[in-house]
Write a structure and sequence with these properties.
This protein has 756 residues and is mainly alpha-helical. Helices cover 63% and strands 4% of the residues.
Length: 756
């Protein structure tokens, strides 16, 4: 089976190599600073030169790892705990990168890896070794180590990490599926063997010889998982031989990670604990193929959907009561309703699911930072979520399940409001509408949650910028970004088009520094194919031709005839970009002096066909430009006030200032979710702000405070604020993840309630 796995991985290297080549080629086509473009060229050339050696080295390393030791590992583990050795920094860095890659891959393959792990455990009588080739972390570590051995910089690996781990996850998912199919065809069942646990009393043996309950036996094993997860989250260890839980590298993976990455790793640990709890033999839950709900439970859930509108009033919870007392009353209703459903359940797995969901919603209803008006409606989502959890095991293993995402987003958006400001708001009305849609939706799966989640995201994009002053600010900021981006792109294209033409330096400088901005402004204000924009594009070609040598009388006559119109269009363009008066006169004089020198020049002329080709390309310039990395934007509060007519005293523009910032922080800034709340420390004042908007290319970001003030922050400055903890998220993990953690804590303290 392991040979089949390695064969599949080696076949998958072809696709991995293709994905990385495509990624490098795409990266090469993007524009940026000179240093960035040089680094991309170096990385592309390095991969072209060394990729073959890397692929061969990885295949050899995978095959060398085919024979794990199947001897009992208890003594070896104890010996490793007593062995101290220095670990080279290269080894530690490789493990850090491999650990991150393995975590991402595991999110993609967990549904196939877990049954494979159980089947291997049943065959070999013990869990997989830490360095077993079946583990994603072992596969990833070989990829990282061989990358460095092949002579490629580790920094280049960080550049391609996202596409690499995505494609590796896709390959491993297929390979794990094939391995599971193979073992299943041989009669190997995915059922955990409790005998593999070492140095523990026999399962089920309680004090005094009494038999422990099924729930207690299930929680015994989940406590082991919890301890392993805590060990993985400890401080950085430099002792050789020791590994984190489930074969992860020593817990060095938190060093050098952003808070977002650390939160994701902790989240993965929580979800892993929950998955192991639900798949214990005492519950018998199948995380791959969930059986349909038992008849009595299914009938009770269907009846609740039909009677949802009247249910809450009949149990003494008025629908329109949004007080704290109503939340407390609803908490009791949630608890009682779960007890009723448990009585209808026929299997232990159904009872476990009902209990976990009930505890999650108890935690959500106890979150006093969310206004009661929102929590009242969250309570009504318990039954729809229970229906999804029973039908889709993925709800418990995938943090991106739409039901989780919806509750997280609605909770995070409401987090910064008090009851007074939320009451009667559009946000409150939208949450109410969404809950009612979900309650009445006839299907039990994820579809309705995905539909309303998409609708909520659309609602947020309008709700967060609906104030008139904010709306105007957003419009101006978007236009500024578009103009600056186009100016950069036009400059790049003009440089490319004029590269091999004998054009005077004065004309080149004017086109690159001034006329590119004119073209960008015209395109943003009027559109790229508007008559004025097209005229300005033609002016660029006419200027290049007029400034070239004119060896014959006919061409000199054409220049003299066309010059007044050319100068008029140049003045119109300069006026558009704000250059008027003496500054404009000086610029026009410099251009006419250059044209006069060219008129008498004996240098090589530019053929007319070249000028016409230039004009055609300029006319359709937008078809050739690529994404550009923006530089500094000429944006401040005064210019915003001038363009929008609003009072700029409440607008704080925080522009890039060249402060050093890690690329990981920039990536984090790009992933911020609109609607989330933060604490902003700016100029010594601390303010609660909500992330309201980002521009199309995410170069500008708007945060709004409840007092009406706004903060417009450029991307790299935003990343610098995150890096310096001047911008701190109000919550580091989503509402449903925190609820899952609370549920596990309660079950850890009181395991009997899981199946009781």
């Amino acid at each position: 089976m392991r040979e089949r796995l390695v064969d599949g991985l080696c076949r998958g290297q072809v696709e991995i190599d293709k994905v990385l080549l495509d990624f490098f080629n795409t990266l090469m086509s993007q524009t940026g600073t000179q240093r960035e473009m040089q680094n991309r060229r170096d990385a592309w050339q390095s991969y072209q030169q060394h990729s073959g050696e890397w692929i061969r080295g990885v295949a050899a390393a995978w095959r060398a790892a085919l024979s794990p030791s199947t001897a009992p590992r208890q003594d070896a583990f104890r010996a490793s705990e007593l062995t101290f050795e220095l670990v080279d920094d290269e080894v530690v860095e490789n493990k850090i990168v491999a650990s991150r890659m393995a975590l991402t891959v595991m999110e993609q393959v967990s549904a196939q890896f877990e049954p494979l792990r159980l089947r291997v455990q049943a065959l070999e009588g013990q869990d997989m070794a830490a360095d077993d080739i079946l583990r994603p972390e072992t596969v990833a570590l070989q990829l990282v180590e061989q990358w460095v051995k092949a002579g490629m910089p580790r920094g280049d690996l960080q550049t391609v990490l996202d596409p690499l781990q995505r494609e590796l996850g896709a390959v491993m998912l297929k390979v794990y599926q094939a391995c599971n199919d193979f073992l299943q065809s041989q009669g190997v069942v995915a059922q955990q063997d409790l005998r593999v646990r070492v140095n523990r009393a026999a399962p089920g043996a309680a004090a005094g010889g009494e038999q422990a309950s099924p729930a207690t036996r299930a929680l015994e094993q989940s406590q082991e998982s919890l301890a392993a997860a805590r060990a993985r989250q400890g401080p950085v260890s430099r002792m050789g031989g020791a590994t984190g839980g489930y074969g992860m590298p020593p817990p060095t993976s938190f060093s050098g990670m952003t808070p977002l990455a650390r939160a994701r790793q902790r989240a993965h640990g929580v979800i892993g604990q929950l998955r192991r709890l639900l798949t214990q033999p005492a519950t018998g839950y199948d995380m791959v193929n969930a059986p349909p709900a038992s008849a009595a439970l299914a009938h009770a859930l269907a009846a609740h959907r039909v009677q949802a509108e009247t249910y809450y009033s009949t149990v003494g919870a008025p629908i329109e009561d949004y007080s704290q007392a109503a939340v407390i009353q609803l908490s009791s209703v949630v608890r009682n309703r779960s007890a009723e459903f448990k009585k209808k359940a026929d299997t232990e797995s159904e009872k476990a699911i009902i209990e976990v969901v009930a505890l999650m919603f108890q935690s959500i209803l106890a979150e006093d930072r969310i206004p009661p008006a929102v929590r009242v409606w969250f309570a009504r989502l318990q039954v729809p979520v229970l229906r999804v959890a029973l039908a889709e095991p993925e709800f418990f293993s995938n943090l991106s399940h739409p039901a989780r995402l919806l509750i997280d987003r609605m909770g995070s958006c409401a987090l910064g409001f008090d009851s007074t400001s939320l009451s009667g708001s559009a946000l409150e009305a939208e949450i109410k509408r969404i809950v009612q849609v979900i309650e009445q939706y006839p299907e039990t799966g994820r579809r309705v949650f995905q539909l309303v989640f998409d609708e909520f995201e659309t609602f947020l994009s309008k709700f967060l910028t609906q104030k008139q002053s904010t709306s105007r600010l957003v419009s101006v900021a978007q236009q500024v970004e578009q103009k600056e981006t186009l100016a950069i792109q036009y400059t790049i294209e003009l440089r490319t088009m004029l590269k091999d033409m004998p054009v005077r330096d004065e004309i080149r400088e004017f086109l690159f520094k001034n006329w590119a901005e004119v073209l960008a402004l015209a395109a943003v204000r009027n559109g790229p194919q508007h008559a004025d924009t097209v005229s300005f594009k033609r002016t660029a070609a006419d200027l290049v031709w007029a400034a070239s040598a004119k060896p014959n009388r006919t061409e000199r006559a054409q220049v003299i005839q066309s010059l007044p119109g050319l100068l008029q269009r140049l003045r119109q363009g300069l006026t558009l970009m704000g250059m008027t008066g003496e500054a404009q006169d000086a610029q026009i004089k410099a251009l006419t002096d250059t044209l006069a020198e060219a008129f008498l020049s004996k240098t090589a002329a530019i053929p007319v066909e070249h000028i016409e080709a230039l004009a055609r390309r300029l006319a359709n310039l937008e078809d050739f430009i690529s994404d550009a990395v923006m530089g500094d934007l000429p944006l401040d509060a005064d210019s915003i006030e001038m363009m929008t007519g609003i009072d700029a005293s409440s607008i704080h523009v925080i522009a890039d200032n060249g402060a050093p910032v890690d690329d990981a922080m920039v990536a984090w800034a790009l992933e911020l979710q609109r609607g989330n709340w933060f604490t902003l420390d700016h100029n010594g004042a601390s303010t609660q702000v909500q992330y309201a908007w980002h521009s199309e290319r995410k170069q500008l970001h708007l945060f709004a405070a409840t007092d009406g003030s706004c903060y417009l922050i450029q991307l790299r400055r935003l990343a610098a604020y995150l890096q310096a903890s001047l911008l701190v998220a109000r919550e580091e993990e989503g509402l449903t993840l925190r609820a899952t953690r609370d549920a596990l804590a309660k079950l850890n303290a009181n395991p009997e309630r899981l199946l009781g």
